[in-house]
Amino acid sequence: MITIEINERTKAGKALLQAAKIMAQKNEGIEITKENSILISRIKRNHRKQILSETEKANFLEELQNEL
After folding, report:
1. pLDDT tens across 29-47, in order?
2. Do 41 and 27 fall into the same domain?
3. What's the distance, CA 25 to chain centroid?
4. What domain range is 45 assigned to?
5. Which of 2, 26, 44, 68 to pair with 19, CA 20 to 30 A apart?
């Protein structure tokens, strides 16, 4: 998930928001959320899903060490 902050008062912000709205209507995978409470709950939910187990963390650190 990516969060983009758009200034709706600028020309560029208006254009980007309009393009995102059109894409959200036509495609799945794009959703526009204005309420911070919904956004924060989704960020927390995604964060919990992406936490590595101790084994995954050890393997990742080992791979990283090997790359250096």
Report:
1. 777 777 667 667 777 777 6
2. no
3. 19
4. 34-68
5. 44
